[in-house]
């Protein structure tokens, strides 16, 4: 697979955002249904995992339920909530030569349009996107240390599906052609430079 590239064309899928902007702005959350389902599937999957042994003696039923919830969450976040709530989307496309390309896209818009985006929705989106994969990583370590091997495939599925969405949207946010390694290097370089400058000023 090739490294991701960006698409410079305006895409019709973002037209829904323009329609939503024409509605009444009485609330801070312009897409309450999308915001609800952004958190519903992932939170429910975590709750089912935590409470499964208490309410259901059958492992298979719990495993299938959790995987279905994780799959619904992956699809909803990747295809709907990211586009509506923060104007980002990512996908994989295969060109005529059969080569696979990852595309990371951010909604185009003026500064005023971006400023009008709901800060509450953005906060909900990013908090849900970051916190839940961290929880699944904690579950993965807890299953390994407690030797509950039967749960390992389930928690790995949680880490992979939610981690993939997190990675895709971070790439959208920082730019599809920007290497995350280069971004981290630049960040730490700036921090080092700031510390060096502050030490010089103190002396």
Strand order across the largest sheet: 1-2
Q: CA-to-CA gap between the ends?
A: 51 Å
Give average pLDDT, whole number.
Answer: 78
Q: What structural category arises from helix and sheet content? A: mainly alpha
Order of helices and strands: HHHEEHHHH
User: Helical amount among residues, as a percent range?
Assistant: 55-70%
What is the global morphology?
globular
Helical stretch tally: 7
Number of E strands: 2
Binned strand content: 5-15%
Q: How would you characterize the largest beta sheet?
A: 2 strands, antiparallel
Nearest-angstrom radius of gyration? 20 Å
Name the poorly predicted regions. 6-26
List the main descriptive attributes of the protein structure presented here.
mainly alpha, two-stranded antiparallel ribbon, 2 strands
Description of the molecule:
- With 203 residues, the chain is mainly α.
- It has seven helices and two strands.
- It has helices at 15-21, 32-55, 59-86, 111-116, 119-145, 152-174, 180-202, and strands at 88-94, 100-106.
- It has a two-stranded antiparallel sheet.
- A hairpin with a 5-residue loop joins strand 1 and strand 2.
- Helix 2 (32-55) packs antiparallel against helix 3 (59-86), helix 2 (32-55) packs parallel to helix 5 (119-145) and helix 3 (59-86) runs parallel beside helix 6.
- The longest helix is centred in the middle third of the chain and has 28 residues, at 59-86.
- The chain is globular.
- Mean pLDDT is 78; it is low at 6-26.
């Amino acid at each position: 697979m090739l490294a991701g590239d960006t698409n410079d064309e305006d895409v019709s899928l973002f037209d829904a955002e323009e329609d939503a902007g024409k509605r009444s702005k009485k609330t801070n959350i312009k897409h309450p249904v999308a915001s609800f389902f952004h958190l519903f599937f992932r939170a429910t999957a975590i709750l089912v995992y935590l409470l499964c042994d208490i309410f259901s003696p059958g492992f298979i039923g719990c495993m299938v339920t959790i995987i279905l919830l994780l799959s619904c969450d992956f699809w909803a976040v990747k295809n709907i909530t990211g586009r509506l709530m923060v104007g980002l989307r990512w996908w994989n496309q295969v060109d005529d030569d059969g080569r696979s390309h990852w595309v990371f896209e951010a909604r185009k818009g003026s500064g005023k349009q971006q400023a009008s985006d709901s800060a509450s929705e953005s906060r909900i989106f990013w908090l849900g996107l970051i916190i839940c994969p961290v929880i699944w990583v904690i579950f993965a370590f807890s299953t390994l240390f407690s030797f509950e091997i039967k749960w390992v495939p389930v928690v790995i599925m949680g880490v992979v599906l939610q981690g993939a969405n997190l990675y895709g949207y971070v790439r959208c946010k920082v730019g599809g052609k920007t290497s995350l390694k280069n971004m981290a290097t630049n960040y730490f370089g700036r921090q080092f430079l700031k510390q060096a400058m502050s030490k010089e000023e103190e002396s």
